[in-house]
Amino acid sequence: MKISADILHHADLNRKDVDNFTKKNVVKSITYYIEHKSPIGTLLLAATDAGVSGMYFEEHRHFKGKHGWLNQPYHLHLQLAAQQLDEYFGGTRQQFDLPLALQGTPFQRSVWEALIAIPFGQSTTYGHHAAVIGKANAVRAVGTAIGRNPVSIIVPCHRVVGASGALTGFAGGLERKAFLLRLEGSERDG
């Protein structure tokens, strides 16, 4: 419900009262999840009604837990994500076509959105990725944002490697990163 200035005046409310009411009564979106078997272990897929919001590995470094989430095996976004991940692991999908609900700072989202442009079978460096998004002097911040990517594989942070080509920093572990790059037959770009 939108509160007009006239109602505020006549109801003898002020802007601060309305702002406080709004902050206390914000309806947060519900996060749904499923657990999905894969060749690299059980994946926890998360979504809101807006899109896929998480894809976490067992022992995922930055996962805060599913407290308050609802197990919903028939949620459309989760079913599509599971199907497309199966196709990816089966070698029949190279690009994901899913609505995403990425939750992070504007800087993090810009880093994550640019990851989607790294082609299947290619890898790039943290420095090159930083330059691509116009933040060439912020390689560490870009690397930190990549490490906090909540939708691993689908937003392909595994395609970013160290300057020497070494496998570095992956919230799901370097063994999984190596597996994903081998699965894609990765070649270095940039």
Automatic annotation (TrEMBL):
Function: Involved in the cellular defense against the biological effects of O6-methylguanine (O6-MeG) and O4-methylthymine (O4-MeT) in DNA. Repairs the methylated nucleobase in DNA by stoichiometrically transferring the methyl group to a cysteine residue in the enzyme. This is a suicide reaction: the enzyme is irreversibly inactivated.
Broadest EC class assigned to this enzyme: transferase
Start and end residues of each Methylated-DNA-[protein]-cysteine S-methyltransferase DNA binding domain: 106-185
Main location as per UniProt: cytoplasm
GO biological process, one term: methylation
Extra information: This enzyme catalyzes only one turnover and therefore is not strictly catalytic. According to one definition, an enzyme is a biocatalyst that acts repeatedly and over many reaction cycles.
Organism: Glaciimonas immobilis
Signal peptide (residue range): none
Pfam entry (one): Methyltransf_1N
One MF term in the entry's GO annotations: methylated-DNA-[protein]-cysteine S-methyltransferase activity
UniProt keyword terms in alphabetical order: Cytoplasm, DNA damage, DNA repair, Methyltransferase, Transferase
Catalytic activity: a 4-O-methyl-thymidine in DNA + L-cysteinyl-[protein] = a thymidine in DNA + S-methyl-L-cysteinyl-[protein]; a 6-O-methyl-2'-deoxyguanosine in DNA + L-cysteinyl-[protein] = S-methyl-L-cysteinyl-[protein] + a 2'-deoxyguanosine in DNA
HAMAP family: OGT (MF_00772)
CDD domains the record matches: ATase
Location in the cell: Cytoplasm
Active site (record annotation): C157
Domain Methylguanine DNA methyltransferase ribonuclease-like: 32-102
Gene Ontology CC entries for this record: cytoplasm
Enzyme nomenclature, EC number: 2.1.1.63
Family membership noted in the UniProt record: Belongs to the MGMT family.
Keyword Transferase: yes
The keyword Magnesium is assigned to this record: no
Protein name per Swiss-Prot or TrEMBL: Methylated-DNA--protein-cysteine methyltransferase
